[in-house]
Amino acid sequence: MAFPFGWNILHMASPPIERTVYIVSDSTGITAETFSHSVLSQFEEVHFRPVRLPFIDTVEKAREVAARINRNALETGVPPIVFSTLVNPASMECVRNANGIFLDLFGTFVGHIEQALGLKSSHSIGRSHMAANSEQYRNRIDAINFSLAHDDGQFITQLDQADVILVGVSRCGKTPTSLYLAMQYAIKAANFPLTPDDFERGTLPSTVAPHRGKLFGLSIQPERLAEVRNERRPNSKYAKLEQCRYEVAEAERMMRREGISWLSTTTKSIEEIATTVMQEVGLDRSN
Fold first, then answer.
1. Has 268 been labeled as part of a binding site?
2. 240 marked as binding residue
3. Is 162:190 a contact under the CB 8 Å cutoff?
4. Are the CB atoms for 225 and 249 separated by under 8 Å?
């Protein structure tokens, strides 16, 4: 096969790198999964296939996991990556000895902290998720219930209890941000839509106006908003680009006029949006 002048075989598209990732935990695996996502996102050229294996709380289960890792290594020809938050030493050693790239998330840090404090850790399984009866846990449940009840302006009483009230046009990311704030930080977040009726009146909705100090605005690029709305209501006026441009421009104009801090959600993750909201509104929660 002949190639054009200046072309060499190195320019040919190579197949994407693929690697299986096992996320092994004796509890829910959420901690290991979150950490693995953060680390692996740094390698954009690799296609990772995550396999979450929670509640590996016996040595017998750990042996099954080890066998699964070994089979994968044999079938693919490369050792899979293993993120582990196993606490039981026997289970951890069993998985560690399998043919995988073993990353012990707890062991990496616990030993250093034990040495610094002069204390031994409890080595309790699922310790970070044993808070079902704690005040912090109850606060998160209350915040989730509050955010669900006050989603999209459907329940307008008790807004004085809100920690923050998100405002913006429909489908700009208010609901997922509200729920994330509630679930992760026990923040009571209400959200309220800004509609064409509000823009025609030129004023904030009367329901949220008294709570101006708690308002934070979300916006979005009109093109992206049109895509999102078309997924919900294809070929509707609601989803037309011209309508989206009008609503976004008017919403941003209103937020500037009313002195409401706001940000565009277009290229930001929920985590980034939530962190910005907390910083701007002055909410400091550790739950």
1. no
2. no
3. yes
4. no
Q: Is residue 244 a known part of a binding site?
A: no
Class level of CATH domain 135-281: alpha beta
Rounded-to-integer distance, Cα 96 and Cα 36, Å: 17
**Helix, strand and coil percent figures for the chain, each rounded to 5:** 50, 15, 35
The pLDDT of residue 14 is 57
Residue 174 assigned to a binding site: yes
Residue 194 near residue 262, CB atoms below 8 Å: no
| DSSP H/E element including 256 | helix 241-258
Reduce the DSSP state of residue 128 to 3 states and report it. helix
Distance CA 90, CA 66 (A): 12
- The C-alpha torsion from 69 through 71 and 77 to 81, rounded to 10°, is -10
**Taking the C-alpha atoms of 33, 178, 161 and 155 in order, what is their torsion angle to the nearest 10 degrees?**
-130
Confidence at residue 286, expressed as pLDDT on a 0 to 100 scale: 54
The three-class DSSP label of residue 108 is: helix
**Could you give the strand order of the β-sheet that contains 17-24, starting from the edge strand earlier in sequence?**
46-53, 17-24, 81-84, 101-104
pTM for the structure as a whole: 0.70
**Which residues partner with 272 through β-bridges?**
none
What 8-state DSSP symbol labels residue 79? P
Q: For 1-49, what is each residue's pLDDT tens digit?
A: 444 444 454 444 556 689 999 999 998 888 888 889 889 989 988 999 9
Q: Is 169 annotated as a binding residue?
A: yes
Burial 132-159 (b: 16+ CB within 10 A, else e): eeeeeeebbeebbebbeebbebeeeeeb
Q: Which fold has domain 17-121?
A: Rossmann fold (3.40.50)
Task: Map out the domains of the chain as residue ranges.
Answer: 17-121, 135-281
208 is in an annotated binding site: no
Does 6 appear as a known binding residue?
no
Q: What is the pLDDT of residue 28?
A: 86
